Amino acid sequence: MEYCNAFGASLTTATYNQYIPIIREYFIPYLNKNKKFKNTPEDIIRLLKYDITRQDLIDGAKYYVMENRNVTSQKGVNNFLISISKFVEFLSNKGIENIALTRLLPFKNLAQLIIDELESEGKYLDPPEEDPPINDDEFIFIVEYLNAMELKSFITAEYCVMVKILLFLGLKYSRLTSLKLTDFDADNNTLKVMYDEKNDRHYTVHLPNKLSKQLKHYINLRNEKRFNSQLLFVNRKGNVPDNGFLNYFLNKIRKSYIENRLLDEEYLNDKNHFTPTGLIKYAIIQMIRRGINQSVIIDFTGNQEDIYRNCQNEVNEEKLESRNRYLDSKLRGIDSFDVL
């Protein structure tokens, strides 16, 4: 536990929540159950350097899946392996190297073997979803990246604003590109979002001050082009912009994120979060967390029910994990814990 705590202290809040619960609540209990060692500094170092093997990675992952009812997707196996690989790398950098394990890095290469073994034992996991949502750390980086940009060109300002609207409102791309100039009220910093044009039904929402300021700046640059179009967002020819450049723009941000966070091959091989759908899902997850009604979210954003369902599943898993951590921390604080 001492080394787990030291590893946790070296992480950001986002990576702490990603790695530490898996190690503390599943991998350490697996080791306690399956390995013979004394709770002394010498014995723990021996365990970490020599006794944990490739088979323990496989069996530990299976233990995690079988003991954690929240794991329903193959993504859970990858999350376990990534968490343990980061822990092993941390220990190695501290001089506690398990040579047998470091030779196996990245551990994600074991994922399919583990999934196959689980299936042979009757445990089936759903395949990972396409275009998963960005996480909180990626959100913060994207916003900081956009705020640091010099919005001198019309196109740069446009895609900066489009990304921020996706992050905040989660609008389906076709609904985003259907917005009109008149939908933005610059005096009140509000945006009108039509969801039933035939019956003139719409939502009007306030935009964050910084986003409103950037949107006004973009509109000024747009007006200099004198486009013969009432659409809020247009390409250089004055037509509806396709999402090709938006994907290119997001990929540039992703590359910068990878370089800034010093991420490795495991992250590169994971599903790409930096997509329009990944941003949209992040926004919808925030709405669900705030208790916004499902029908309102679907009406407002224009996304299909399967997108909403993916987001709801993410929130459900978060709540169950949070409840488990809450209960475990409270139980470990009971006086009888140390006595027993």
Model description:
- It is a single chain.
- The chain is 63% helix and 4% strand.
- The chain has 340 residues and is mainly alpha-helical.
- It folds into 2 domains: 2-128, no CATH class; 130-313, Intergrase catalytic core (hpI Integrase, Chain A, Orthogonal Bundle), CATH 1.10.443.10.
- The protein has a 3-stranded antiparallel beta sheet with strand order 1-2-3.
- Helix 1 (2-9) runs antiparallel to helix 2 (13-34) and helix 4 (54-67) crosses helix 7.
- The longest helix is centred in the C-terminal third of the chain and has 28 residues, at 305-332.
- The radius of gyration is 24 Å and the shape is elongated.
Write down the overall mean pLDDT: 87
Distance between the termini: 18 Å
Q: Which sequence of SSEs, written as H and E, runs from N to C?
A: HHHHHHHHHHEEEHHHHHHH
How do the strands of the widest beta sheet line up side by side? 1-2-3
Keywords:
elongated, hpI Integrase, Chain A, 340 residues, single chain
Short description:
This protein is mainly α and 340 residues long. Helix content is 63%, strand content 4%. The chain has helices at 2-9, 13-34, 41-51, 54-67, 75-93, 99-102, 111-120, 136-147, 154-169, 173-176, 209-224, 244-260, 265-269, 276-289, 294-301, 305-332, 335-339, and strands spanning 184-185, 190-196, 201-206.
